Every structure is written in C-alpha cells, then in structure tokens.
Amino acid sequence: MIAPVAAAALLGGGLLALQAPAAQAAGNVVKVTGSQGNWQLTVDGSPYTVKGLTWGPSVADAGKYLPDLASMGVNTIRTWGTDATSKPLFDTAAANGVKVIAGFWLQPGGGPGSGGCVNYLTDTQYKNDMLAEFPKWVDTYKDNPGVLMWNVGNESTLGLQNCYGGDELEAQRNAYTSFVNDIAKKIHEVDPNHPVTSTDAWTGAWPYYKKNAPDLDLYAVNAYDAVCNVKSDWEQGGYDKPYIVTETGPAGEWEVDDDANGVPDEPTDAAKAEGYTKAWGCVTGHTGVALGATMFHYGTEDDFGGVWFNLLPGGEKRLSYYAVKKAYGADTSGDNTPPVISDMTVDNATEGVPTGSDVRVSTHTTDPDGDAITYQVLFSSNYIDQNKALVPAETKDNGDGTLTAKAPSKTGVYKVYVKARDGHGNVGVETKSLKVIPPKVDGTNVSQGKPATASSFQTDPTGGCPCGADNAVDGKFDTRWASDWSDPQWLQVDLGTSTAIKHVQLAWDPAYAKGYEIQTSEDGQNWTTIKTVTDGNGDIDDLDVTGTGRYVRINGTARGSGYGYSLYEFGVYS
Q1: Do 410 and 434 touch, CB atoms closer than 8 A?
Q2: Torsional class of 452: left (φ above 0), alpha (ψ -120 to 50), beta (otherwise)
Q3: CB 23 within 8 A of CB 6
C-alpha cells in the first residue's frame, strides 16, 4: 500500500483533489480477534503484527524521523503520554504508514523520576481527574488514522513497591489494577474501535490484571534480557488474553553483573544488537499469543542511557539499528553499516589512573565497508554524581590501535567510551570502567589509619552512609566522611605525636568545600591556621604547607554545594 505522502507525489490536479478527503477519513477499526491461544490483531479486518519501536524524538521532529522508521520496516511506535501536543505525531505517523500505541501516564510509574505516590484506595480526586482526562484525549483522537491502541499506565504495579510495603502494597496493587479497568471501560465507551492495554515491568503484574482488569483487551509488559521467559510465564499463569511487549532489547543495567570496579558491566555493541534479534525471535516464537513488540529505543539522546539503549545516539546509527531493521524484514543489503569494536581495554583500569594523567585505551576495530575510521574518547561520571552526560576528551589516535586521552580531574569510577565513526552517519560504541585516583604524593601519609573525629557525620543509610570521620583516613576511595548540611564543619585527625607536615591532599566527593582552612594543634584545642583556601572547586586539592602539630584539621567555612562537606580521603604528608 502506498503511504499518503508518496501517493500525493504521484497524483496530480483533479485526482489529487479527489484523494484529499481520504486523509481526513475516520480512523481504522482495530480489533483483537480469535480464540484462546490463536489470537491476532487486525486493522480494518487485515492481520497486523506490531513491529515497533518506542518513540524518543520530540513531536516537532516527527517529519524528520518517521520516514526513517518506516524504512526500517517499523509499523508502530509507542508513546508514554497523550495530550494536546500529540496530533502532529499521529498525523505524521499515519502519513508514513506507521501507527501509534498511545500512552497515558499514571503515577507512580516504574522508573526514576516517574512521579509521586498515589493512594489508589483513598485518592478519589486523582482518580476522578484521570478518569476525566484520558477519555477526553481518546475522544479527540479516536478517529485519527495514526492511532493503533490505547495504553494505560507504565510499570506502576511494580512501581508501587517504592511507595508501600507488605499488606498495604498488596491492597494498593489490587486498587491500581482495578482503577486501570475503570479507565479501560471508560475508554471503550468513548472509542469502541481501538483496543486498550496496560504496561507493567514484569509478568508478576499480570495476575492482578487477570483478577481486577477484565476489560483490558490484551496485556503488555516491558522485558529486556528476560523477554524470552514471558512465553512460559504466560503459559504457567493460565491467562486468557494475548499480549504485546512494549519495551525490550539488550540486557539492562539492572540485569548485568558488576565489573572489577564494582559498576554494571555494559554489553558490547555486538551483544546489544544480538539482544534485539533474540528478543524479536522470542516474541514471534509465541505464535497466536504475542501480537508483536515495540522495542526500546528509537532515541537520539547521546548520554549514559542513550548509549546503553538508543539505536541512534546523537543521530548516528549503530549495529542495533541495523539489527532491528533486519528483524523487521526491511532490505539491508545495500546498507553501509557501522564500525565494529571487537575488543576494548583501558590500561590500569582497576589499579587506578591519577587525575589529569594520560589514559591509554586499546581497541580492535574493523569496518565492514572498508571505510576510514575516526575515534573519540568520552567520560561519564554517572556512578560518581549521577551526571549522565558524556564529556568528550581530547583524543590522540596513536595509529597502532591505541588512543590517548586525559583522565578527569575528580576521583572516582568513570565510564570510558570509545566512539568509532565511519563518515557515513554510523558509529560503533564501546565502554569500560576506569578508576581515577589522586596523584601520587612524595612522602609518607601520616594520617592514614589514625583516629579521626568530626563536628558531625551522616548516619542515614541512603547514599552509602553511615559516613564517619574514620572513612576519610582509611586509604580507600570508595568510602567517605560526610557532614551535616551546614557551615562550619570540621574533621580532624590525631597523629599520635607532634609531627612536621609538608603537604595535604584532599580527595573531595561532589559535596566539596569552596572555602576552608588547614589547621594544626598540639592539644586539639588551640589551632594555628597554616593554609586558607577560598576558591575550592571540588577537584583533588594538593596543598604544600609548613606546620607542626599532633592534630591536623580541615575546617570548612563555605560549602561548594547545597549538601554538606564530603571527603573520600584526608591525606597528611610528612
């Protein structure tokens, strides 16, 4: 079938005028048909298998990206919200022969930042608001040919565990899924021509839907590395409805083992591509029950999560893009495909590289099309400060399969990324972790292992605490002292005897001191200031000092963040 845009290009004059009203015709009739174990989705009576991707770009970019999606063999995209801004996306999708699983968001959702907690037993105001809001948009768009079905909620049955526990959690899950059913009934009253589903994060939600949501036409689940277990879960659960998979792909951060630096070991580009191939095979392998999938994710964000999951981070296509295109049956025979990094190592990744020093990265990279390859090294501090940005580093290609870049200026475990580009809009990306440590100091660290005390320390177990004073002198860069969130605060160490010191090294957490004093004392009561800092930036502070005392103290006078003072290490050198 020729898409409306293509058809318009082929028609002229009066024929085009005759065709124009068809673009405004009522939407399709979409049904779940068949019987137990032998279902199918139909659009205007024709079988329809969901070959989809979750949608990431802005609605404003729909015209830019939907033709590309169609060229991949994609017939469906999935969204998480539907409102007044959705019309251009629905229209552009329809013009490109693509349909939309249109989402409605319910709190709490399942992921970080997904929203506040709702009491589904007592919060009638919230429920009434949603019962009015969602059907309003269903009524607005029900005749739009871009709509495939409605999807109520995302991962909230699981996400409620972040709000409640025990018997209350059970009661809330029953109340939530019952409320989903209330919405489904309301949507069906407004729009009898499109199915209604509800997505959750694991098949453990399905028994609640089976019990409480009979008005759903089909179930939906987000499953990544575990997607191939969904078939057996469905069979063992005795369900009487089919399902779609609304997010899937390679193993997620929560599904992989930690590496030697204690951070999740991200799959290789090749493994990610194979993850999509495997997922599609398991979905299509559940014939008559699994009605398709919207795999995750057609997104362009070029950050920590974007590199893990996006098919085109920064708009550049990677192996996973072509794996999905092949899975959906599109022609890939003439495609120029990305460079493949088959091996990547980072020198001294676990021993540690000093801040600001050279980092040497080795790769084995080939390009299937023989294209010239250029390289870039980037760093992410996500596992230090939750900043998901990828920061480019000045990169030297040594011409022997190795690259050299400068280590970041703060300590901690970073992700090191190598991007290999072919000049044709394709990119290969690999990543490994790297421990960044303070520069080596000449002399003896006389504070390590000595008794330490502080004006305050955090005890709350969230954030990795208790964070007592001794953590700052234990010689480890994965423990820290953290103070109350106020000024002033101090940390002092007892060297045991009067000692001449010549250097102090401070390894700050992101909660650093902008202003502080280094002080010495013979009795722990009367202090002499031997160094004053007023322009601290949170990097490693290497301070040459001259002083003598049994006690050495850092006295924080101005915090550099809204938090307290937090030190990984307080090194005092003689």
Answers
A1: no
A2: beta
A3: no
pLDDT at 428: 98
- DSSP secondary structure string for all residues of 212-281: H-TT-SSEEEE-STTGGGHHHHHHHHT--S-EEEEE--SPPGGGS-B-TTSSB-PPPHHHHHHHHHHHHH
Q: What is the pLDDT of residues 493-528, one digit of tens each?
A: 999 999 999 999 999 988 999 999 999 999 999 999
549 φ, ψ (degrees, to nearest 5): 175, 160
State which amino acid sits at residue 213: A
Would you say 104 and 151 are in contact if contact means Cβ atoms under 8 Å apart? yes
Beta sheet of 340-346, edge-to-edge order? 340-346, 358-366, 402-406, 396-397
Locate 515 and state its tokens.
């202003």
The beta-strand segments (E) located in 422-488 are 427-437, 452-454, 481-482
Please state, in angstroms and rounded to a whole number, the distance separating the CA atoms of residues 507 and 556: 14
Ranges of residues in the chain with a pLDDT under 50 are: 1-25
Q: 213, 198, 191: which is closest to 147 by C-alpha?
A: 191
Q: What is the pLDDT of residue 393?
A: 97
- Provide the whole-model pTM: 0.86
Give the Cβ contact number of residue 430 at 10 Å: 23
> Any idea how long the chain is?
574
**Which residues have CB under 8 Å from 498's CB, separation 6+?**
522, 548, 549, 550
Show the CA angle centred on residue 413, arms to residues 412 and 418, nearest 5°. 130
pLDDT the model gives residue 111? 61
Mention every residue, 6+ apart, whose C-beta is less than 8 A from residue 64. Answer: 57
Contact 318, 394 (CB under 8 A): no
**Strands, DSSP E only, in 338-451?**
340-346, 353-354, 358-366, 374-380, 391-393, 396-397, 402-406, 412-421, 427-437
Q: Is 10 left (phi over 0), alpha (psi -120 to 50) or beta?
A: alpha
For residues 174 and 52, give the distance between their C-alpha atoms in angstroms, rounded to a whole number.
30
Question: Is residue 164 within 8 Å of 175, Cβ to Cβ?
Answer: no
DSSP-assigned letter for residue 389: B
Picking from 401, 435, 442, the residue whose alpha carbon sits closest to that of residue 418 is 401
Residue 25 is predicted with a pLDDT of: 45
Complete edge-to-edge strand list for the sheet that includes strand 391-393: 353-354, 427-437, 412-421, 374-380, 391-393
With beta carbons less than 8 A apart as the criterion, state whether 283 and 294 touch: no
**Does the bond joining 108 to the residue before it have cis omega, within 30 degrees of 0?**
yes
Partners of 77 in beta bridges: 53, 100
Distance CA 385, CA 378 (A): 16
- Token readout for 265 is 């070991």
Read off the amino acid at residue 2: I
Q: Which two tokens stand for residue 123?
A: 């919060």
Task: Give the model's pLDDT for residue 114.
Answer: 65
Measure the CA–CA gap between 66 and 276, rounded to whole angstroms.
20
- Give the C-alpha separation, 298 to 78, whole Å: 10
